[in-house]
Structure formats: structure tokens, C-alpha cells
Fold:
Amino acid sequence: MAGPILTVADLAVAIAGRRVVDGISFAVKTGETLAIVGESGCGKSMTAFAIMRLLPQAARISGGAVLFEGRDLARIAESEMKALRGNRISLIFQEPASSLDPLMTVADQLIEAINAHKPASHSEAAAHALAMLRAVGIADPARRMRQYPFELSGGMCQRVMIAIALACRPSVLLADEPTTALDVTIQAQILELMKRLRSETGTSIVLITHDMGVVADMADRVLVMYAGRIVEEAAVDDLFQAQHHPYTMLLMRSVPRLDAPPKRALPVIEGTVPSYAALGTGCRFASRCPFVSEHCRAEEPPLRQIAPGRATACWHHERVAAAGMVPA
Amino acid sequence: MVRFLVSRGAQSLISVFGVMTIVFVIMRLAGDPTLLLVPEGSTREEIAQLRHQLGFDRPIAVQYGAYLWDLFRFDLGTSFVQRVAVTDIVGARVPYTLKLAAGALFAAVIVGLPIGIITAIRRGTTIERILMPIVLIGQSMPTFWSGILLILLFAVTLDWLPSSGADRLSSLVMQAIALGALSMATFARIARTSIIDELSKEYVRAALAKGISRGRVVLVHVLRNAAIPVITVAALEIANLLAGAVIVETVFAWPGLGQLAVQSIQGRDFLVVQALVLLASVTYILLNLLADMLYSLVDPRIKLYRPKQ
Structure:
């Protein structure tokens, strides 16, 4: 694979003075799928919105850089950013049905995206839109073009969103929980579609999810986020083999397993994510961590490289990895 | 679409029928209608004779049937006070009130909607802090008071506009402003709330993610989605304008339906009052029907919706 197409360096997002994304760094290579996992509120969606500069009104980028095609997206003018959105970097959302304008036909919404960057005559744009719908596997696309979002199923809406996102052939696609709102069979179809389009177009994907199954299916590399920070980074196979952060380990154990004894309670991670107001000096996971020590409460562990392409933010990562080998 | 219109039209007809019945019942609940019609100091014989002449001595079901039949033929009876057909009395006043309501609606929309839009998309800015008090004033000033203040300023002090009458277009200006102020505030508030609500929806962020400008997102996506509550309120506001006309027409001596209502109540012109109540109710129902038809133009989900069989 070639060098990174998108580099996020020490990015921070603040809401009312509190850092909900606190100094995260990562790089996405061309054609790669990078998964960002973590539970609700860990800052993974905020990271995507920050890259697109589409943060909610109360939030703002408070530090760091987003390097893309030689520019820092955190600093360029809004007009420059507008020219990139949907064109070089696209974003798809968790709720496909509410991400489409309910009062506009599928065709008009697609054509709007095409015309935003590649102005064409109406018939050319319509032909392009039709081709995009066909590419995302929508049956009878000519009829679907004339329909409104409420006439489409959730899976079909997500296909339309993907068609809109990829209409201008972006080099990076940010997918924020693209399958969470869909049922399992549709989920699998959408993931297949994304894989196929990635191999056809070479688009890099940043996949934001809390679903380890989706991660295993899609990702090349994984970032695990907890309370606004990256706690572990690894290639996907390495991560599933051994976890070097207790949060990742517990996250894996809370995935239901087919070979687990029936009627046994699903393991859960005790406690809740600390509120951003209550963050102290130590490790953010300390209050929920079975490996916690005095050192953890006193000093926050930095994200350190422990092997090529592998990093963790845990003082006791060796103990954690060893414990992970023993079946729970 | 046709099915939608037919079903909504049928519903409206039922509502009109209900209003007619309620008016009939209230009229009877108020006691013997004859007593409302006779001049003071009439003898028992005169009352009985009039009662017979008007048919109020017939069984109530027969009276109800006759009442509906008359309404069906647009026969609202003859005013006992003025000895003129009620339809002529009311009909002569309708154009004035229509003119006044149209003027007030125009003023309310061209001021209220832009204020609503601007204060929604420029939240927390100086322009919002300048415009919101205008909405507050429109909302809170009673019409009889703002009307008199307008007369004091523009008619008495500045002598720019006539204080009363209906003979020139200029005489409409103050009346329309006084009557439209409350509606202006309502339009501004509803538009603002509705737009703020739409702006927080996911499709706005998704539209921005396509790389189109914020202005285009508001113009093309947000305003249309925000229009439905505004249309609903507009229909009700027009009806409220007719109610507000009672005060404004009295303050400005404007010869419309509101003034007629006040005069008829004071003059115990019972049938005219009844006709005005019916007219107001039917107007209300028709405006709601119109609003429903407009929704279906704005929102495809309404006209295409088919209830599951």
C-alpha cells in the first residue's frame, strides 16, 4: 500500500471547554479500511464530523491538524472545505432514512451531489445518477429515481446514501455506523457492497462502529477509542488474537459467541464511561479496569508503540495480553 | 391524490353539517327565539302571532328540517330590524373584511416570515436581538390599543393617513398593520421554531456533506421541510384575522363583518348574528381544507399515503 492519504495529528474537539476528542492521531493509507471502535459517546463520531468540519454548533476543533492532499482541513477556508466535501472526502451516516431529505426525490438528491462538484447538463447528471444507483445494487433504478425516501426501505436508503457519497469518486469515505440501524441480513449486504466498491474504486474507508463483527469483516486496521482517546491500535488480525488494553479485551469478551455455553449471562464491562467533567489525572479506564494499580490512578498511560503497527495506552499491557490468552 | 381530496372534502362537509346543527341547538337552548326578535313592550298576542308566523310553534324536528333546507338554498332569512334579506346585509360587508384580512395577512407574511427565517439561521447574533423584540411587541400589544396608538401617531400627529373610513387604499394601511401585528408575530415564531427544528435534523448535515453551501441547504431543503407547520398556522391565522376584525373594524370604523357583528348584537339582529356565526365557521373549515390541500403539494408523503387495506 502507498503512503497515507489522510493523516490526523493530535486532533482535539471541545464542547463548552471540555475535550470530547482529546489529542488523537492516526493515518489512513490509500485503499485501506481503518475501523474506529468504541462505545457511544467515546468521541468516534465527533472525530468524523471534525474531519468533515461538520461539527454540531456547540463543538469546535480545539487543536491538532487534519492533513489531506497537502492541506490542513482544520485550517482551510470554508469555501475550500466545501469543495472537498462530497467530492474528495465523503461521509455516510448511521440513520440512512433520516439522512435523506424527505421531500426530495432520490434523483434530485443524487443530482444535487453531482452538480455540487461536477456541473453537467440535467440529462448527463441524471444518467450519472442512474449509473450510481445501479452500481450500488439498486434494482429497477429508473423507478427508484422518481421515488421519495419514505417509499424506500432502510437498506435501500443507505444504498442511496452510498451512491451520493461515492458519486464524485472521493478518495476517502467516512462511514459513521453505516449498518447500525439496519437489520442483520441488510447489514451484511451493505458491508459486501462497501467492500466491492472499495476494491473497484480504491477508496479508503474510515469505518466508525461499535460492532466487533463488522470490524472483523471489514477492517484492515483498528483504533479503539475510550473517553476521547485512542487506547489501542493494531492490525485487525493481531487485535483479535491478543488485546493489549483491558478495555479492548473486555469489549471482545462482551461479544456474544456461538460456542459459549447456553443461558450464560453475557459478560459486560462494569461501570460507565466517566463524564468528561470528572476526568482526573490517571488512566480514564481505571475505575472500570480489573488490572488497575496505583500507578494507573496517578498517571495517565500514553499511547506507546509495542510492536510494528501496534500501540497501546496501558501500563500493564503485558499482563493484560497474558490474561487474554486464558479463556475467560 | 383525487382520493385524498374527495375524502378531505367529505370530511369538511360533515364538519359544516355539524356546525349548522350546533348553531341550531344553541339557538334553541337560548330559549324561545321569538322573544329575541320582538320589539320591547309587545303583547302576548303579538308574540304568539310572530311565533306562528316564523314557524317556531312547529315540532323541533320540522323546524330543524326547514332550517337545513333554507341553508341549503342559501336563504338565511330576513332581518327583522332592517327588513332586508340577511344574505344582502352580510354580502355587502364581505368585500371590506376580505380587503382588510388580505392586507393584514400580506403585512403579517412579508414581515413575519423573513423575521422568522433570519432569527432562526442567525441564532445568537445581534440581528436576532434586534428582531425578537419586534415579535414580542406584535405578540403582546392588544389590537384596540395599538390601533389607537397608530391613529394618534399617523392620523392625529403626523396627518399621513386617514383615521377611519374605507374609501381609499391609504385607509387600509393602519388597519392592516394593527390587525396583522399578532399574526406577524405568530408567523415569525412558528417559522423560527420550525426552521431551528429542521436545522438540527440529520439530512441537513448530510446535505452539507455533499459539499453544497449552507445557504443552498436552507433554501432548497430546510425551508420546504419547515413549511408545513407554517401552512397550518397560516390557515388558522386567517381565521383569527376575521375574529380580530371585530376590534379593528370598530376602532377604525371600517364597514366590514366585524363591525356588522358588533352592530347586530347591539341591535339584537338575531338572524344576522346567526349568519355571521355560520359564515365564520364555514370559513374556518374551508381554510383548513385549503391547508390540507397545500400540504399535499408540499409533502409527497401526504398525497401518496395510502392507508393499509
